[in-house]
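for the writeup, i need someone to sanity check this before i put it in the appendix. the sequnce is what the collaborator sent (i think, or maybe the updated version? ugh). structure was predicted straight from it, no edits. if anything looks off just tell me and ill rerun, i have time this weekend
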Amino acid sequence: MTTTNGVELLDVNAMVGRLPAEDVGDGSVAELCKTMDRFAIGSALVAHSAAWRHDPATGNRLLLDEIAGEPRLMPCWVGLPDTCGEVAPPAEFVEAATRAGVRAVRLYPGDHGFRFSGPDVAPLLDAIARAELPLILDLDQASWADIEQVAASRPRLQIVVCGLGYRVLRELAGVLDRATNVHVDLSYLGSHLGLEWLVERFGVHRVLFGTGMPVRDPADAVSRLLWSELDDENVRMIGAGTAGRLLGWTGW
């Protein structure tokens, strides 16, 4: 078991695969694991850059091939509405995902050209919710209004919003208050005592450890959690406890 100061870390926001527009290395599994070792991150939920930047069907296959044999890495597939026939219908997609051991699904509605709360993706969201797979979403991909609408209409769907900074805390607070199935990660949460405020106001289970690797330096999220003013139990819950429950992960 890999720990930092006795705290297990499960990263819910990591990626493998090349990102040619970013100077972040070769995108290999070996490089990701080396970085995880450096920061004592025990396990990670990972998607593939090709599923985001090229096409989900290809990228999801590459992901399974590349992380095979690396028990610390959990697959996260990228989904799409099936309106153009690029991916399997929602029920088949989710069945294939669960059969392959996929622990969560990512969506990129902004980059892939669909509305997060629109009718095209609704059947996929319903299928993900029925399968009790968490949904990972970067904040720059959908509005808070769309996120809240999807969360309110699907209370079983656990949504993890990544990449939010201090400028969105006021709007975030309203959403967290009204939608109890919305969570956030630490990858860009740079506000002074913002983590402590979120835990005090909304509960420790609403915040998950996520780094944004390889684009983000994991030292940011690691130091924010381990140097926080939270007590040890809350640090452990954010580090891996809540994420492990949502992902059904007992790998450590």
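The mean pLDDT is 95. Residues 77 and 187 are 20 Å apart (CA to CA).
thx in advance!!
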